[in-house]
Amino acid sequence: MAGATPSTSSSGADVTTDPTQLATKTINTIKTLSMDAVQQANSGHPGTPMGLAPLAYALWSRVMKYDAADPHWPDRDRFVLSCGHASMLQYALLHLTGYPLTLDDIRNFRQLGSPAAGHPEYGEVEGVETTTGPLGQGIGNAVGMALAERMLAARHNAEGAAPLVDHHTWVIASDGDLMEGVAAEAASLAGHLGLGKLCVFWDDNRITIDGGTDLSFSEDIPQRFASLGWQVLHVDVAEGIDAYVAAADQARADTSRPTLVACRTHIGEGSPNKQDTSAAHGAPLGEDEVRLTKQALGWPEDAVFEVPTDVREHMASAGARGGAERAAWQERLDALRTNAPDRAAAFEAALAGELPDDWESSLPSFDAGASLATRKASGKVLAGIGPSLPQLVGGSADLAGSNNTTIPGSADVAAGSYAGRTLHFGVREHGMASICNGLALHGGLRPYCGTFLVFSDYMRPSIRLAALMKLPVIYVFTHDSIGVGEDGPTHQPVEHVAALRSIPGLQVIRPADATETAEAWALALRTPGPTALCLTRQGLPILDRPTGGVARGAYVLREGAVKPDVCLLASGSEVSVALGAADLLQKEGVAARVVSMPCWEQIDAGSSEDLFGGCDVRVGVEAGCSLGWHRWVGPAGALVTMDRFGASAPGGVLMEHFGFTPENVAQVAQRALAESERSS
Predict the structure, then answer these.
(1) Which of 199, 147, 207 minimizes the C-alpha distance to 179?
(2) Is the domain of 533 the same as that of 586?
(3) Are residues 564 and 512 in the same domain?
(4) How much of the chain exceeds pLDDT 90, in percent?
(5) By the 8 A CB rule, do 199 and 171 touch?
(6) Residues 500, 558: one domain?
(7) Do 130 and 438 touch, CB atoms closer than 8 A?
(8) Are residues 571 and 595 in the same domain?
(9) Domain-located, residue 354
(10) Are both 401 and 509 inside the same structural domain?
């Protein structure tokens, strides 16, 4: 069995010339590096890297197309370790094949400042294509990467010419990955779309942290994937690395179906006492077991973080193997620059994520005084900018007509037909968000996706990861408050805007009208990280106001006075309510300033006093929970918010019932002023 038989040398440092023995020695190097790193950190998962070492070695030495000298080569194969807890497997491979991850980094595995974090972190280590912590997310990301490859190939490859885009996405996934619902959603769509350049190797080791998988998991995974339209293959680790290579070849041969390779492996392979047990999963093997395992592998017991010279040279050669292919690809691109400069420029601009200089001139303008739901205004924005931004692609979780997420005239993406721009994700919000992360990670496309705001809960893990990785995904969340109306409290978001605002690095924009919606899209497309647009179902008056306020996060919509008596702060549909309240207060001799606050993340804390005009009495107005508003209204302020669930009734009735009216806001402001005067 490859990886389990002892090396013929008495020392891991002895030179091995036989190819089979060298492969075994390399596999054992991956195993011992993984054991040593976890043992030194006294934290981590040694068993999965040990069991997967033969498979990973086969992929990185004989299957995958990559060049360690250029980790960002656009036509490289993508590798996703969906079981991110096995991170030492990837770190060992990256180090051995020549990526800039040092042995000292591995010695400091899981320590502060080391790029070798507990789970692979995108942006921290070259060669890590995505952050895979939560199980299942890697599979969803990989589906997005494979979809991006097909869509870019349809756009930029020329018939009869050598392709610019032609690569595969390889995934290693665990039992836990396949238990998670996000993986099932993404795999279902991958089968439907016929993503034939996607291959998932399932680590069927039948062990979880709690014990054997039979404690909670008895479904027929191969049958499930076959029913989803996947090609299903089987490999037992005892068959050796040639069997993994043959399975990869079969996966590449089937261009119309993604492939699942069920790999019967042994967690902790080579450990005399912990192989095939949960004790090898989430804790160090222990010094005694590490010593015994090295004995069983024919490895010197006292060698720690040992990388034999012949292994290093062998894997460095594997890391450089794709250099010739990369050079040939570069020659094709150079020839295209000469023969078809416009095509080359479009391809390179897409890869760089560049937007045309004048794209914002395509943004629509809206006449003040009319009424339009911000979800409909968003649809008009997409229609306006769509022709100028061909890299903008997206769709909805079966709510395109409600979310207004379809670019007019754009074709649907379907199996065998990938040149379109409209993605139909089906009722799969969790998978949709994870797939969009993969589209963004791959590069060349700018993804957006849509659903009702209340269903952002299904997407939250993927949104969080988009923020963590700084991915420019745009979320179009409509039906953003109790204004949804008759569908009732299950469909009426109350806590969701506050929950989204709590995610570090996520830009949340709740525009007050159609004009702010256009500005919100412009800001989202200029932002290198993710943005959530929170849009209304109900019509809102288009306001007569200065432009450019959304980019500042907040701005004065109505002055009231140089030093107003009260400041009314609002976002979204409640801005027009605040304006109505200001009119009522003015009639009572109260000078009220109105501040629209569409995007808290963009507000400069140092200039917030300029926004409020030195006014201590501030009233925050938003048809959502109060969480977060106290920082803006201060100790003398008051809130018209909603810390309870809604009800089933027409939206306008609910707004009045729960106090989101000019009359109620004005009364709350009057009471706050009176209380302030008493306390002073």
Answers:
(1) 207
(2) no
(3) no
(4) 94
(5) yes
(6) no
(7) yes
(8) yes
(9) no
(10) yes
41 and 133 Cβ atoms separated by less than 8 Å: no
The number of angstroms, rounded, from the C-alpha of 607 to the middle of its chain's C-alpha atoms is 32
Number of domains, the chain: 3
For residue 323, what is the enclosing H or E element? helix 323-339
pLDDT tens for each residue of 98-119: 999 999 999 999 999 999 999 9
Domain housing 468:
359-541
- 599 Cβ partners below 8 Å, 6+ apart? 507, 508, 509, 510, 520, 523, 550, 553, 554
Report the C-alpha gap between 494 and 513 in whole angstroms: 20
Domain-located, residue 140: yes
- Nearest alpha-carbon partner for 68 in 441, 330, 322: 322
Please give the Cα distance from 127 to 231 (Å, whole number). 27
Write out pLDDT tens, residues 304-355. Answer: 999 999 999 999 999 999 999 999 999 999 999 999 999 999 999 999 999 9
- Nearest-angstrom CA–CA distance, 435 and 186: 7
Find the catalytic residue in 429, 516, 574, 622: 429
Q: Where are the alpha helices (DSSP H) in 358-407?
A: 374-385, 400-403
For residue 178, give the H/E element and its range: helix 175-179
Question: Which of 211, 135, 125 has its CA nearest to residue 178?
Answer: 135
Residues 396 and 267 in one domain: no
Residue 605: which CATH number?
3.40.50.920
C-alpha span between 39 and 278 (Å, rounded): 16
Does the annotation mark 429 as catalytic?
yes
Instruction: Give the pairing of strands 539-541 and 371-373.
Output: antiparallel
